[in-house]
Amino acid sequence: MILIPKNIYYTKHHLWLQKIGKYDFCVGITDFGQKEIGEIDLIELTNKGSLLKKESLLGIVYGTNGTFHLIAPFDCEIIEKNRDLHKHTAYVNTAPYNYWFAIITTKIDTVSLLTFEDYRQLTQ
Question: Strand pairing partners for 18?
Fold first, then answer.
């Protein structure tokens, strides 16, 4: 069974986003995404301060079942990267919603993101 918390947003590319400010979001990979990848070996993220266009590469996750591209859900800027993530990549497999990859900022409305219900329908 896939864990899908109700209080955060999702993308069709299996990222979760938790709003932490007016324009800022913590972003990580969903339970569904980490199960597709398998045991995670390495996470590479685009540099802090990078300006990304919607659908551009935010990073790459390498796992036992292959690689997974992290796709930017909207135009944004990476304002923080989780520096400890490389030490704890395996933890993402056990608790994907406790380990964010980056903090991004944007001036979009959350209506472009998927809700719990939307994401649940996508993954069934």
Answer: 26
Q: What is the 3-state secondary structure (H, E, C) of the chain?
A: CCCCCCCCEECCCCEEEEECCCCEEEEEECHHHHHHHCCEEEEEECCCCCEECCCCEEEEEEECCEEEEEECCCCEEEEEECCCHHHCHHHHHHCHHHCCCEEEECCCCHHHCECHHHHHHHHC
pLDDT for the residue 109: 77
Please give the pLDDT value at position 56.
96
Given a cut of 80, is residue 40 above it in pLDDT? yes
Domain ranges of the chain: 9-123
Average pLDDT of the chain is: 93
Q: Does 9-123 carry CATH code 3.40.50.2000? A: no
**How many whole angstroms separate alpha carbon 68 and alpha carbon 84?**
20
